[in-house]
Structures are given as structure tokens and as C-alpha cells.
């Protein structure tokens, strides 16, 4: 009778020692955010479970088992099951693993615009070829024929005290007379009591009196200031032009 009682007690003790319990726990990140889909592995039994969306898990285990927690992008963590873990929940914190980034040579300053920065860091082959061709082109000397003056084009002499001979004027006195006649109009000379047939004769008389027109003839251009200057000079010559006619 005593033997049967001892055998029964030993059997109960053996069952209790080898019995497996449920181990509960919760997994969070370093930011204290619940982590879903973390793989929990009991290394002894090779049982695997996933945490739910709240980071909770439940797995069969017993005292002394070792649990492994695996999540892509985070460092693996192993945890021994203690008596405390069996009687209460396990709280696990996973640490994000360091990611290696390929080294990039920065040749230009970053603008903050992804499209622009990506082009600057990785220019297309066509762009690189164009830059190379432009560099070769710019290093070549220019053809002197491209820099030569065109036929009839006025070229300003360069440097000081360098003579290239007489430069042909673009206008002569006749050209300037025609311009004055058109610019001032027929009525201007009529108001001065100059006969239409004598208009050019009068203009030439003003020229002969010392009206400065060198630059006007040289460049073939009469400014508004030159036109006003001619009208003022006319007033100094009109009396002397009329005098011979009055005497007659």
C-alpha cells in the first residue's frame, strides 16, 4: 500500500516537472511601439509563432527554455525562461539594426531637391559626352575669318595712338543735306523765307560757316542733339545769307 502511494506521488511530481506551460509576452520597439509579425521561436521545441498587431504572443514552453525573437531590420534577441516569466508576462524590446549605406562621392552641393540632386550625382552618359565635346571645342582656336569685319562694316580702331589710315565716311555732305531736308521738312525752310530751289544751297552755306559735322559724316548718323545744334547754327547764319539778296 505504501509502495503504491509513493509511486503515485512520484508520478504526479514527474508530470508536474515535465509539464509545459503557456508563456505569454509583449514585444515593443525602442520607441515603445507595439511590433506585429515578430517571429518567436522556442529553440528546444522549434515551435514558432508570430506576434499579433498589438505585439502580443503565446507559445508553449517551460522553465529553462530559451526563446528567440526575430524581426527583419532589428537585432535578434534570445531570452531564457525563468520562473518569473512563467507566472507573469515577458516584456521584450527589440533594437533596430544598423544599416550599411554605399559610399557616394559628393561632387556638387546638395540643393534639397531630389530630382536635381539625383541628376547632379549621377549625370547621364549623353550629358557627360556633351560636356567632353564642348571642352574640346572651347580649347580650339577661333578661325580668323569668323572674326573679320564684313564688307562695308565700320570697325573701330583698337588701342591708343595706333593709326590705320583714313577711314572712309559713311556719308558725304549731299547725304547729310538730304537727311536734313527730310528730317526738318519743307515748311521749316519756307518759314525761313528760303526758296525751295535754294534749300540745298542754303544748307551748304551753313556747312561752310563752320558747322561741325565730322562725326555725323563718319558714322552716317545724325542724333536729335545734332539736329537741334544745326537749327541753332542756322539762326546765326540766316541774316548773313539774306544780306546779299537784300542789297540786290
What would you say this structure looks like, in words?
The chain is an alpha+beta fold and 248 residues long. 43% of the residues lie in helices and 14% in strands. It contains 10 helices and 7 strands. The strands form 2 sheets. It has a 4-stranded antiparallel β-sheet with strand order 3-2-5-6, with no helix packed on it. The chain has a 3-stranded mixed β-sheet with strand order 4-1-7, with no helix packed on it. Strand 2 (39-42) and strand 3 (47-50) form a beta hairpin. Helix 6 (173-184) crosses helix 8 and helix 8 crosses helix 10. The longest helix is centred in the last third of the chain and has 24 residues, at 224-247. It is rod-shaped and about 140 Å long. 12% of the residues are buried. Residues 3-8, 10-17 and 156-165 have low confidence and may be disordered.
Short recap of the structure:
Helices cover 43% and strands 14% of the residues.
Amino acid at each position: 500500500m505504501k509502495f503504491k502511494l509513493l509511486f503515485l506521488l512520484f508520478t504526479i511530481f514527474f508530470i508536474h516537472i515535465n509539464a509545459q506551460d503557456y508563456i505569454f509576452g509583449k514585444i515593443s520597439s525602442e520607441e515603445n511601439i507595439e511590433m506585429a509579425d515578430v517571429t518567436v521561436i522556442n529553440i528546444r521545441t522549434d515551435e514558432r509563432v508570430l506576434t499579433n498587431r498589438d505585439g502580443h504572443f503565446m507559445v508553449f514552453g517551460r522553465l529553462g527554455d530559451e526563446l528567440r525573437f526575430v524581426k527583419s531590420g532589428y537585432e535578434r534577441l534570445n531570452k531564457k525562461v525563468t520562473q518569473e516569466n512563467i507566472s507573469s508576462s515577458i516584456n521584450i524590446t527589440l533594437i533596430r539594426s544598423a544599416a550599411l549605406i554605399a559610399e557616394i562621392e559628393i561632387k556638387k552641393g546638395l540643393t534639397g531637391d531630389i530630382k536635381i540632386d539625383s541628376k547632379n550625382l549621377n549625370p547621364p552618359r549623353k550629358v557627360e559626352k556633351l560636356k567632353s565635346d564642348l571642352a574640346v571645342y572651347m580649347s580650339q582656336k577661333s578661325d580668323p575669318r569668323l572674326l573679320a569685319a564684313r564688307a562695308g562694316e565700320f570697325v573701330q580702331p583698337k588701342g591708343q595712338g595706333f593709326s590705320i589710315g583714313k577711314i572712309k565716311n559713311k556719308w558725304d555732305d549731299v547725304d547729310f543735306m538730304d537727311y536734313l531736308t527730310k528730317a526738318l521738312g519743307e515748311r521749316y525752310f519756307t518759314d525761313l523765307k528760303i526758296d525751295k530751289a535754294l534749300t540745298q544751297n542754303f544748307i551748304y552755306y551753313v556747312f561752310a560757316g563752320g558747322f561741325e559735322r565730322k562725326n555725323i559724316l563718319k558714322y552716317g548718323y545724325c542724333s536729335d542733339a545734332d539736329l537741334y545744334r544745326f537749327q541753332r547754327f542756322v539762326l546765326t547764319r540766316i541774316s548773313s545769307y539774306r544780306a546779299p539778296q537784300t542789297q540786290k
